[in-house]
Write a structure and sequence with these properties.
Order of helices and strands: HEEEHHEHHEHEHEHHEHEHHEE
Structural class: alpha/beta
Largest sheet: 8 strands, mixed, barrel
Number of helices: 12
Length: 289
């Protein structure tokens, strides 16, 4: 019990002394290499310890109920930034199952869209497969979909939610779990079967597909072979600062190579920035960070 309490206090100290930030990972069209948009990813920076791992951050936030408040901040911050990008560039934001279970996800989305002025069809809300089987969460998702926002299901292949359920919920996109994509080279049999099957089922249901976690040219080639629609992963680019993402978004027709060397070999300094970008303030309760 003492060790557990100490760990909780350490986590609280690290988190309350830090601040949230977003990084943006590109989404790439696998037919052309064109930049489609970005997924906003939450990061937490401590002034002395650097980045705090999500494995420490998220359990603390969920245990204290602060995941709802922080989820609202992520939506507001992401939509504010995306509103300044060209209209053909999309934004994807993850919504916590906790928000959906409390029925507050739709109000958070509505507030973020209203404050930012971002067009609803430029926002994709990503959820896990668990949201597809819980009544309160599903009702909240229906409210989100009614705004004209796109819906995506993350980590598909791990739980095998019925595609009939996804059709009824008007899901637009499924994202194939990185564990299958990342193992396409080492364990080609079962992982190729999973990827091919998910793509086939999705397309037969009118749902687009995204391959997550691609790190090599060969993995990119294999998911293109199965006619996966889009991909994201370190082969194309790691999560980027808002400054770098904005520069990329504003370059007309920005395209990524679909073969050859990956991002790390092509970019000597991918985090180089020019003009700092303002962000939304965030606070726990009345404490502004």
């Amino acid at each position: 019990m003492a060790n557990e309490t100490s760990a909780q206090l350490d986590a609280e100290s690290l988190i309350l002394s830090g601040e949230p930030a977003l990084e943006y990972q590109p989404l790439v069209d696998l037919a052309t290499g064109r930049l489609l948009g970005f997924e906003a990813l939450l990061r937490w920076r401590h002034p002395d310890e650097g980045m705090i791992l999500p494995s420490l951050l998220l359990p603390w936030l969920e245990a204290n109920g602060d995941i709802v408040q922080l989820g609202e901040w992520v939506l507001a911050e992401g939509c504010q930034q995306a509103a300044s990008w060209p209209k053909n560039i999309q934004l994807a934001v993850n919504l916590s199952i906790v928000q959906l279970r409390r029925g507050v996800g739709s109000s958070a989305v509505a507030s973020a869209l209203e404050r930012s002025g971002l067009e609803p069809d430029r926002l994709t809300i990503e959820v896990t497969e668990h949201a597809m089987v819980e009544d309160v969460a599903m009702n909240d998702l229906r409210g989100i979909g009614a705004f004209g926002v796109e819906l995506a299901v993350d980590d598909v292949g791990t739980s095998w939610t019925s595609f009939d359920v996804l059709r009824r919920m008007a899901v637009n996109t499924v994202k194939i779990d990185r564990s299958f994509v990342g193992s396409l080279e080492a364990h080609q049999g079962i992982n190729r079967l999973v990827v091919e099957t998910v793509v086939s089922l999705a397309h037969s249901s009118g749902i687009s597909t995204v391959a997550e976690g691609g790190e090599t040219s060969l993995q990119s080639s294999i998911v293109r072979e199965f006619e996966c629609d889009a991909a994201q992963g370190y082969f194309f680019a790691p999560p980027l600062s808002i400054e770098v993402a904005t520069e990329m978004a504003n370059e007309p027709g920005y395209c990524f190579p679909l073969e050859g060397s990956g991002w790390m070999e092509r970019k000597a300094d991918p985090d180089a920035t020019s003009t700092p970008v303002a962000h939304e303030p965030f606070s726990f309760g009345h404490r502004t960070i």
